[in-house]
Amino acid sequence: MRVPYHVRRDDRYYSYSYLHDTRTEAEKDCEQRSELTIVYPIKLDQQYFGVYTTEKEVSRVPLEVNLPEYGDRTHKLVKTVRDLFEYIDEEQSLDWYKKPELSGVADAINRVQWRQSVPEVGGELLSRLILRHGLPNANHRTAIAFLQTYLETLKPGIGVPQTNVGDEWSDWTNEFIVDSKKLLTVRRNAGGFQHLAERGATILERKGGVEIHLDEYEITTDNPWKHFRRKHEERSVEFVVKYVRRAGGDELLEEIDDGKRAFADRL
User: Fold this and answer.
1) The domain containing residue 43 runs over which residues?
2) Helices 118-132 and 224-246, interaxial angle, to 10°?
3) Local structure of residue 237 (DSSP, 8 states)
4) For the chain, what is the largest distance between any 2 Cα atoms, rounded to a whole number of angstroms?
5) What is the pLDDT of residue 57?
6) Are residues 12 and 113 in the same domain?
7) Across the strands, what pairs with 20?
8) What is the rounded average pLDDT for all residues in the chain?
9) Residues 69 and 49 both lie in one domain
10) Is residue 52 classed exposed, middle or buried when 0-12, 13-18 and 19+ CB atoms within 10 A define those classes?
11) Which residue intervals of the chain are DSSP H helices?
């Protein structure tokens, strides 16, 4: 049985949060939350009532990089991510869905294990930035642009796959983004999805028609946060390998990354 993960009300998307047996229980749950909430009826093995939430309106603020607890090179890399996001934001007039957390961007970069193969480092950079979700929107697009920047510092002039709608590059890039969003959603909600599955749910439907088939994910794993982080990183490395090959940079596949300091110094 299908359950909507997103519900649209009043020009907002609300995300599934919790399932209750009665509307009264769901309404009491809503009263205790700081986010905006709605109650949505869900029919599974019986009638249930889901609590769906969304953030309150987020005000735009200048994205100042002021992170004294991080080193100069991390600062420089965070500024690069910030600049890429601001370019995308200006080009596409993005809605801001959450408050920016540039310290989260810094933390994601600092958690990367450098001096592995270029695809492994690139995949980990991509995955860490996406999973940390430190930007108000366009976390995937910005992370892919940052990956592109990283690769171009290693091989100036490397061909860049185009990602305009309808072209070949768009197809496989969007396939990665969809897979990534599914893993993100399951990672954050594995316990709740297990609760739904026990009551007959088989598919969660994200906005845009994206379907999460619960039997394709190990939602009962002991440590879903770690398990799906690893799955996301593996999928990201796979994407980087394909990206490098399609961009004409095969020699980078076996090259060993020379570290965060060297990357920052090349910018």
Assistant:
1) 1-57
2) 130
3) H
4) 61
5) 85
6) no
7) 49
8) 94
9) no
10) buried
11) 23-31, 72-92, 102-110, 118-132, 139-154, 168-197, 224-246, 260-266
Condensed to tens digits (0 to 9), the pLDDT of residues 99-149 reads: 999 999 999 999 999 999 999 999 999 999 999 999 999 999 999 999 999
pTM score over 0.70: yes
Check residue 159 and give its pLDDT: 64
pLDDT, one tens digit per residue, over 197-243 is 999 999 999 999 999 999 999 999 999 999 999 999 999 999 999 99
* Rounded-to-integer distance, Cα 123 and Cα 241, Å: 9
Are 123 and 252 contacting, i.e. CB atoms less than 8 angstroms apart? Answer: no
Please classify residue 91 by burial: count the beta carbons closer than 10 Å to its beta carbon, then call 0-12 exposed, 13-18 middle and 19+ buried.
exposed
pLDDT reported for residue 172: 81
Whole-number Å distance between alpha carbons of 237 and 28? 44
- Same domain for 68 and 47: no
Do 41 and 114 fall into the same domain?
Answer: no
Taking only the tens place, the pLDDT of each residue in 148-173 is: 999 999 999 886 655 444 456 677 88
What pLDDT is recorded for position 100? 94
Q: Which residues contact 145 (CB under 8 A, 6 or more apart)?
A: 84, 87, 88
The answer to whether the CB of 132 falls within 8 A of the CB of 149 is no
Two structure tokens written together for 26: 């769901």
Please indicate, yes or no, whether residues 260 and 168 belong to a single structural domain of this protein: yes
Assess whether 29 and 97 both reside in one domain. Answer: no
- Of 57, 87, 105, which marks where a domain is finished? 57
Domains in the chain: how many in total? 2
CB atoms within 10 A of CB 99: 12
Q: What is residue 37's DSSP assignment?
A: E
CA distance 122 to 126: 6
Query: Would you say residue 46 has pLDDT above 90?
Result: yes
